């Protein structure tokens, strides 16, 4: 086997199957658990040890938990949902709600006051589009509830009362965000049990590692979360509210300056598509601008008109590494990773630098991993080995990790039941993996 270079990006060809067993830090309370992950043969029937709970669940509650849990990755830009144990989400759609912006004048016109999922995508030209989640925080709970209801009834075709639910959220969110989500799921959707998990931790589950630092950059939030041998280090989490939606907004501004007026909420979704298909991250932006010359790429708008794209292709995602370009005083994604690693003990940093795991749709931008590697090398000590793992399915890594975790029979005892929630609503914060 040939030796690897000290610093490299590793592209994983296929998903890793993992089995998870539970471990608890002596520093944490009895209800706060973190999970060790081990790679294991998918066909081995292994009973895993788990710490017993203080009280036994009722037989009726156990019966409900035999149903497949529902896993909902509640992203700022996209909703991913499906049943635990599956290798990919059953539904994946933009997490926005559309409302007609024109009056109906004919009988038989499109019915409905709100549109979600595939219908919202299909008729977005007629709609005013609104995202109920901004930078990982729900700003419109009524619309958020509409999306969750759509997931259960239209996408999954099941009753919420019959399945436990695992819900994801960004780290360092306000406590009130989790409180309200739990209240809606228990009181409105009547779920039998619930568990809330930080997105980046689930991505680490999906990668099959017990040690690593996950850089998760989605549509609303970019965050780095270090985990060492299954133990969390909350003090070292770094989060910045610069992500894919900001790239879309900046690209929209650059296109407007170039003479392309795409200003409606529906046209903003067209800009998002341009970003996903045409944008890339430059290793050296200054050099790239000098060399790009007359290299233009053409993108056809839905109406057939072409848009010529030049430097905008790399200038838009550049804000992930240099937020000052849009007047934000946040650290770049490379600084987020290094700052997070530098907040842990000296003895642990080496292993974290060799296990940087990418997650989230924004990391799929062409050239992202190469630029990140280049920038981290500049900030790290000279002889430190750096390895970045870029799973091909990283757009779904969080959901896949949740599917693995919630699908374990031994995970039953980690669910928060309706009875537990009614006795102590604060348990939603006590029993989580962060």
UniProtKB/TrEMBL annotation:
Name where it's found: Cytoplasm, Cytoskeleton
Q: What is a single molecular function from GO for this protein?
A: ATP binding
Q: Which CDD domains does the UniProt entry name for this protein?
A: ASKHA_NBD_Arp1
Chief localization: cytoplasm
InterPro entries referenced in this protein's UniProt entry, alphabetically: Actin, Actin/actin-like_CS, ATPase_NBD
Q: Which Pfam families match?
A: Actin
For this protein, the record's Gene3D superfamilies field holds: 3.30.420.40, Actin, Chain A, domain 4
Keywords on record:
ATP-binding, Cytoplasm, Cytoskeleton, Nucleotide-binding
The protein's name is Actin-2
């Amino acid at each position: 086997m040939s030796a690897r270079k000290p610093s490299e990006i590793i592209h994983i060809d296929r998903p890793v199957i993992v089995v998870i067993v539970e471990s608890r830090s002596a520093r944490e309370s009895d209800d706060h658990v973190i999970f060790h992950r081990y790679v294991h043969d998918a066909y081995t029937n292994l009973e895993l040890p788990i710490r017993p709970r203080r009280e036994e669940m009722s037989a009726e509650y156990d019966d409900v938990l035999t149903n497949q849990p529902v896993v909902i990755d509640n992203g700022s830009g996209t909703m991913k949902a499906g049943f635990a144990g599956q290798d990919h989400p059953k539904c994946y759609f933009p997490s926005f709600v559309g409302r007609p912006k024109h009056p109906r004048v004919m009988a038989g016109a499109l019915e409905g006051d709100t549109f979600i999922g595939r219908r919202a995508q299909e008729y977005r030209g007629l709609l005013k589009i609104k995202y109920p989640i901004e930078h990982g925080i729900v700003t419109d709970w009524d619309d958020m509830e509409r999306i969750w209801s759509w997931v259960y009834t239209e996408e999954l075709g099941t009753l919420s009362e019959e399945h436990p639910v695992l819900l994801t959220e960004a780290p360092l969110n306000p406590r009130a965000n989790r409180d309200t989500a739990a209240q809606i799921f228990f009181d409105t959707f009547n779920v039998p049990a619930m568990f809330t998990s930080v997105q980046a931790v689930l991505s680490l589950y999906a990668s099959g590692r017990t040690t690593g630092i996950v850089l998760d950059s989605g549509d609303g939030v970019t965050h780095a979360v270090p985990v060492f041998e299954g133990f969390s280090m909350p003090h070292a989490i770094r989060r910045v509210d610069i992500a894919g939606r900001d790239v879309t907004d900046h690209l929209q501004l650059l296109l407007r300056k170039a003479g392309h007026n795409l200003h409606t909420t529906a046209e903003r979704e067209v800009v998002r598509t341009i970003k996903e298909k045409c944008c890339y991250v430059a290793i050296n932006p200054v050099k790239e601008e000098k060399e790009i010359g007359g290299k233009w790429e053409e993108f056809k708008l839905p109406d057939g008109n072409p848009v010529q794209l030049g430097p905008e292709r790399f200038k838009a995602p550049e804000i992930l590494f240099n937020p000052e370009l849009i007047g934000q005083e946040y650290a770049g994604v490379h600084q987020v990773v290094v700052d997070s690693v530098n907040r842990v003990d000296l003895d642990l940093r080496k292993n974290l630098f060799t296990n940087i795991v990418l997650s989230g749709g924004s990391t799929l931008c062409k050239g992202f991993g190469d630029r990140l590697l280049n920038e981290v090398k500049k900030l790290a000590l000279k002889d430190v080995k750096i390895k970045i793992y870029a799973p091909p399915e990283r757009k779904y890594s969080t959901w896949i990790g949740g599917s693995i975790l919630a699908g374990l029979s031994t995970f039953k005892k980690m669910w928060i039941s309706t009875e537990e929630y009614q006795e102590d609503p604060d348990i939603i914060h006590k029993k989580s993996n962060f």
